[in-house]
Amino acid sequence: MLLNVRANMIEPFGSCKCGQVQYKVSSRALQVVACHCGMCRSMTGAPLSSYVVVKEEHFAVTSGHEVLASYAVTDRTKRYFCATCGTPIFNSNPHTYKGLAMLYLGTVVDHENFVPELSIYCEGKLPWVNIHESSKSFPQAPTRGA
Ligand SMILES: [Zn+2]
Ligand SMILES: [Zn+2]
After folding, report:
1. Which residues form the CENP-V/GFA domain (predicted)?
2. Ligand 2 centre distance from Cα of residue 32 (Å)
3. What is the pLDDT of residues 86-133, one digit of tens each?
4. Does any domain span residue 91?
5. Strand segments (E) across the chain
6. Which of 14, 18, 36, 67 could form a disulfide with 108 if both were Cys (CB 3.0 to 4.6 A apart)?
7. CA of 142 to the centre of ligand 2 (A)
8. How many A from CA of 13 to the centre of ligand 1?
9. Closest ligand to residue 93's CA
């Protein structure tokens, strides 16, 4: 069953909706995270965000640099998105998550194979959103290394 496939067995690659921005990752995912914080909701319009976390050094945008726009969500977090179709591609936060890129799960081509192992900021979770039983949940962010 697909849900039992460990996310980090697969090297993610993906694109935005219109296909102009494409990326690839040259190593396995470090982690798959579902975030229930209010900031993720307001910047995606979705009830939660899911991220495939990879090392920045293993991540490369392979096409669409000219339409890859960014927005400073906070003074620490930048969201990168396709300026043509609006798809969020990845976040970076060099302060708290130095060296990491948080890829938006839905942009990964075979995202069915990536199941969140961690659910974070669950204290802000919408009551009708269910957390997958295989996911460890935290009221806020887990301390590093969890
Ligand atoms: Zn696009
Ligand atoms: Zn969040």
Report:
1. 12-129
2. 13
3. 999 999 999 988 999 999 999 999 999 899 999 999 999 999 999 988
4. yes
5. 13-15, 22-25, 31-35, 49-55, 59-63, 68-72, 78-82, 88-92, 100-104, 118-120, 136-137
6. 14
7. 13
8. 15
9. 2
- State mean pLDDT over 17-32: 95
In a domain, 16, yes or no: yes
- Going by C-alpha positions, the residue among 86, 19, 83, 7 that lies closest to residue 51 is 7
pLDDT at 4 over 80: no
As a whole number, mean pLDDT of residues 130-137 equals 89
| Burial of residue 50, with CB atoms counted within 10 A of its CB: 0-12 exposed, 13-18 middle, 19 or more buried | buried
What is the token pair recorded at 36?
Answer: 């229930």
- For residue 64, give its domain range: 2-128
> Please, which pLDDT band fits residue 7 given cuts at 50, 70 and 90?
low
Q: How far is the CA of 146 from the centre of ligand 1 (A)?
A: 34
Cβ contacts of 22 within 8 Å, gap of 6 or more = 13, 14, 15, 16, 61, 62, 63, 64
Ligand nearest the Cα of residue 38 is 2
Number of domains the chain contains: 1
